[in-house]
């Protein structure tokens, strides 16, 4: 994978070429890829939502309903906002872990006299460059993909709109958004630059342990406030949804707040889940080493996990939201409600699933990066383990288990969150919408979980884990036992 | 029939061992046709200046590296030509390691580190092994530290845990690479006395690479390397004698 190819850590070539040499550094390519994927994701989503909106309006069954037109408009905006939000957070997470891998070099610069602020400014500037490159690449990719998709779409869907243009002002939102959020992500991720001491250039850098991390009270309280207020808004959204479709707007902000709380509080939420999953892997030496490793840098593992959580939660959310919507709208479907009414919605669900899968790919890139950084920083320990008798096969199993550990924990968390958010979305949007045959609202319904997408999610994450672990595993097995003795 | 390593009273040996890095004019010959054995039940120190080849010799004898030419045995098993898996299992079961630093897995507590060779082997220690481990823990004064993680232990305590792990499987040979290099002199002396006692009282064969004359003075035998060859083989010596020899060799070179 070229995205994580080893670049020269310190390029001393003078002149113009050296100025962009950092782009070849480990992880930079990957973060451009992530930014590009995120931007392309956003662009395609804008195009597809616009296209679906146009298709729905052309639909003879739905186009007439004034309420549903409003619903589609709200949905379009909300989906774009959700996509933007997730893209931003994924990009931010990936970028900050890349910076974590640069501690040593930053420490060296500090050692020879660079100020912490100038070092941070440099990182932030690089973030903007990465963001712009990624966003532009993503725009091109996204437009290309959307163009192909719409040609395919119009041949498959009956009643596709006659004229549809790819030139949507909306695509600028994700493009500019990704460029800016990558910049912002670089700035936020580079906060730890300020904590790097010149001494870390001399010794192995030590990341904060769980205890120290948990002690950052301010941030924890903030996460808790977000979580609680978010949960309250979600509840309010569901209640309001029984009266008006605008309940979904309240619920949306509840979702954003509570999910932001979960993301920023990941270090508090994920370790207990990780510990629980670790117990499932048994007591063998490799399983225990893997389980302990996943908890060694709780911040890093939690960040990695939350990337996967977002992808899984989002896919599940769409699937559950649509299934629950059907439940809400089909309440008395046996009484001859035409099932074709749901055809565009099913197409919509399928396209959304595929689109959201892109965020899983973004998470997989993050997983590759984090596993790689983990292996690189543990070279000496791996050498020690090889010396005292860990075989190559055991090394492979250990790294794979480490990856699995995180994705299993993340998938479980994501499924639970996705089901909750999806149900709340459908409930708050459609609880008050009058449906056929008697034009009475459905009221409260139970969350409807479609099992096929859940199975697809589980299989897909398992596959992504295995694929993401390939490169780091190869790197880990290449560590020679003698490296335990290297005077580093 | 070939004479075996144990017939010779040796725990490990190498024969006509050569190790070269690179080729042609740029090539470096780290070991130059060395033949030597580590005697069973003895505490042997391997000394020599930087670049003398002492680390390379130890890496090959311990099965961590492969020679360019020549043969090596651990016990009666010839290790040259073994595959990576066989080699790894052999290290796990029959060789103990004590490094200068970073001996312990940071995520495991002291007991977990001591039991690691057994767990990597997928088994629990037998009753006899358990008794030996208990004895080691007692002798090394680790009883109250077993549930501490490495970062909660002092440097000397960490090295003692490493010694316990190295001795736990009763290996053919324990390799120690500058085991006192990171310790203050008192902890260093304790570690050396523990190694000497393991050899004297329990017949453990130990090979220790060091460039510290005081450390080497604890050994039964001192091998000196220079330019990839054995240049001297002395029985137990005082630190003064070792220093004097090294100084003379340095001046002569």
> How does CATH name the architecture of chain B?
3-Layer(aba) Sandwich
The strand order across the widest sheet of chain B is 6-7-8-3-9-10
The N- to C-terminal Cα distance of chain A equals 27 Å
Characterize the overall form of chain B: globular
Order of helices and strands of chain A: HHHHHHHHHHHHHHHH
Main beta-sheet annotation of chain B: 6 strands, mixed
**Total discrete domains of chain B:** 1
The low-confidence parts of chain B are none
CATH superfamily (homologous) name of chain B:
P-loop containing nucleotide triphosphate hydrolases
Strand content of chain A: under 5%
In DSSP terms, counting alpha (H) and pi (I) runs of 4 or more, how many helices of chain A?
A: 16
The rounded Rg of chain A comes to 24 Å
The share of residues in helices of chain A is over 70%
Q: Give the assembly state of these chains.
A: heterodimer
**Rg of chain B, Cα atoms, Å:** 18 Å
First-residue to last-residue Cα separation of chain B: 42 Å
Give the helix/strand layout.
The complex is a heterodimer of chains A (488) and B (253).
Chain A: H1 16-19, H2 28-58, H3 66-100, H4 103-111, H5 116-156, H6 172-189, H7 210-214, H8 217-241, H9 247-264, H10 266-280, H11 285-296, H12 298-329, H13 343-377, H14 379-387, H15 392-430, H16 451-477
Helix pairs in contact in A: 2-3, 2-5, 2-6, 2-13, 3-6, 3-9, 3-12, 3-13, 5-6, 8-9, 8-15, 9-15, 10-11, 10-12, 10-15, 11-15, 12-13, 12-15, 12-16, 13-16, 15-16
Chain B: E1 10-21, E2 28-39, E3 43-47, H1 54-61, E4 69-74, E5 77-78, H2 84-94, E6 95-98, H3 110-120, H4 127-139, H5 155-168, E7 173-177, H6 185-202, E8 206-209, H7 213-216, E9 221-226, E10 229-235, H8 239-252
Parallel strand pairs in B: 3-8, 3-9, 6-7, 7-8
Antiparallel strand pairs in B: 1-2, 1-4, 4-5, 9-10
Helix pairs in contact in B: 3-5, 4-5, 5-6
Account of the protein in words:
- Chain A is mostly helical.
- Chain A is built from 16 helices and no strands.
- Chain A starts with 15 loop residues before the first helix and ends in an 11-residue tail after the last helix.
- The relative contact order of chain A is 0.12.
- Chain B is an alpha/beta fold and 253 residues long.
- Chain B has one domain: P-loop containing nucleotide triphosphate hydrolases (Rossmann fold, 3-Layer(aba) Sandwich).
- Chain B is 37% helix and 25% strand.
- Chain B has eight helices and ten strands.
- Chain B has helices spanning 54-61, 84-94, 110-120, 127-139, 155-168, 185-202, 213-216, 239-252; strands at residues 10-21, 28-39, 43-47, 69-74, 77-78, 95-98, 173-177, 206-209, 221-226, 229-235.
- The termini of chain B are far apart.
- Classes of the chains: A mainly alpha (488), B alpha/beta (253).
- Chain A binds chain B through residues 284-285, 288-289, 292-293, 295-296, 380-381, 384-394, 480-482, 484-485, 487, and chain B through 55, 59, 62, 64-65, 84-85, 88-89, 91-93, 97, 99-100, 102-103, 105-108, 112, 116-117, 119-122, 165, 177.
């Amino acid at each position: 994978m070229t995205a994580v190819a080893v670049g020269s850590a310190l390029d001393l070539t003078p002149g113009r070429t050296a100025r962009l040499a950092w782009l070849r550094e480990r992880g930079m390519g990957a973060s451009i890829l992530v930014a590009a994927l995120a931007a392309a994701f956003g662009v395609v989503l804008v195009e597809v939502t616009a296209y679906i909106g146009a298709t729905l309006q052309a639909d003879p069954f739905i186009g007439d309903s004034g309420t549903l037109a409003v619903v589609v408009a709200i949905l379009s905006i909300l989906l774009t906002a959700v996509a933007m939000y997730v893209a931003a957070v994924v990009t931010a997470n990936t970028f900050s872990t890349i910076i974590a891998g640069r501690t040593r070099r930053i420490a060296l610069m500090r050692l020879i006299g660079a100020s912490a602020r100038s070092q941070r400014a440099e990182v932030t500037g690089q973030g903007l460059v990465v963001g712009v490159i990624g966003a532009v690449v993503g725009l091109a990719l996204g437009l290309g993909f959307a163009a192909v998709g719409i040609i395919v779409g119009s041949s498959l869907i009956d009643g596709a709109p006659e004229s549809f243009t790819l030139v949507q002002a909306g695509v600028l939102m994700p493009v500019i958004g990704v460029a800016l959020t990558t910049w912002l992500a670089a700035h936020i991720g580079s906060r730890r630059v300020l904590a790097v001491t010149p001494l870390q250039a001399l010794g192995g850098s030590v990341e904060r342990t769980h205890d120290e991390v948990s002690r950052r009270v301010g941030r924890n309280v903030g996460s808790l406030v977000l979580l609680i207020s978010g949960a309250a808004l979600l509840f309010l959204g569901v209640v309001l949804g029984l009266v008006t479709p605008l309940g979904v707007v309240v619920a949306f902000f509840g979702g954003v707040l509570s999910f932001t709380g979960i993301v920023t509080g990941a270090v508090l939420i994920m370790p207990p889940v990780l510990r629980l999953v670790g117990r499932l892997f048994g007591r063998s030496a490799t399983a225990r080493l893997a389980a302990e490793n996943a908890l060694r840098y709780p911040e890093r593992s939690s960040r990695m996990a939350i990337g996967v959580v977002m992808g899984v939660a989002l896919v599940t959310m769409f699937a559950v939201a649509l299934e629950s919507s059907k439940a809400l709208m089909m309440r008395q479907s046996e009484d001859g409600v035409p099932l074709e009414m749901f055809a565009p919605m099913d197409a919509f669900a399928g396209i959304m699933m595929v689109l959201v899968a892109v965020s899983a790919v973004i998470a997989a890139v993050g997983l590759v990066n984090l596993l790689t950084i983990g292996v690189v920083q543990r070279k000496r320990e791996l050498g020690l383990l090889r010396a005292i008798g860990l075989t190559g096969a055991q090394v492979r199993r250990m790294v794979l288990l480490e990856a699995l550990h995180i994705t299993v924990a993340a998938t479980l968390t994501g499924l639970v969150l996705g089901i909750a958010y999806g149900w709340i979305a459908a409930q708050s949007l459609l609880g008050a919408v009058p449906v056929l045959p008697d034009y009475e609202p459905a009221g409260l319904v139970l969350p409807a979980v479609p099992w096929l997408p859940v199975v697809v999610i589980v299989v897909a994450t398992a596959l992504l884990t295995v694929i993401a672990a390939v490169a780091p595993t190869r790197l880990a097995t290449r560590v020679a036992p003698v490296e335990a003795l290297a005077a580093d | 029939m070939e004479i075996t390593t144990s017939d010779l009273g040796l725990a490990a040996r190498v024969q006509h061992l050569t190790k070269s890095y690179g080729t042609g004019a740029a090539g470096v010959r780290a070991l130059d046709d060395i033949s030597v054995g580590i005697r069973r039940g003895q505490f042997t120190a391997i000394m020599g200046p930087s670049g003398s080849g002492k680390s390379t010799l130890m890496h090959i004898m311990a099965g961590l590296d492969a020679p360019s030419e020549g043969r090596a045995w651990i016990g009666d098993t010839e290790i040259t030509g073994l595959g990576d898996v066989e080699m790894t299992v052999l290290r796990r079961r029959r060789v103990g390691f004590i490094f200068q630093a970073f001996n312990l897995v940071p995520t495991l507590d002291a007991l977990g580190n001591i039991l690691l060779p057994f767990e990597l082997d997928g088994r629990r220690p037998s009753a006899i092994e358990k008794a030996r481990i208990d004895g080691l823990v007692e002798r090394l004064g680790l009883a109250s530290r077993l549930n501490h993680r490495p970062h909660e232990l002092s440097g000397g305590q960490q090295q003692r845990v490493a010694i316990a792990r190295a001795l736990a499987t009763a290996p053919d040979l324990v390799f120690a690479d500058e085991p006192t290099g990171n310790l203050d002199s008192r902890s260093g002396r304790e570690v050396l006395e523990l190694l000497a006692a393991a050899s004297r009282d329990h017949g453990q064969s130990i090979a220790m690479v060091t460039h510290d004359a005081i450390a080497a003075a604890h050994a039964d035998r001192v091998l000196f390397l220079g330019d990839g060859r054995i240049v001297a083989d002395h029985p137990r010596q005082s630190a003064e004698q070792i220093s004097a020899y090294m100084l003379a060799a340095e001046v002569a070179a």
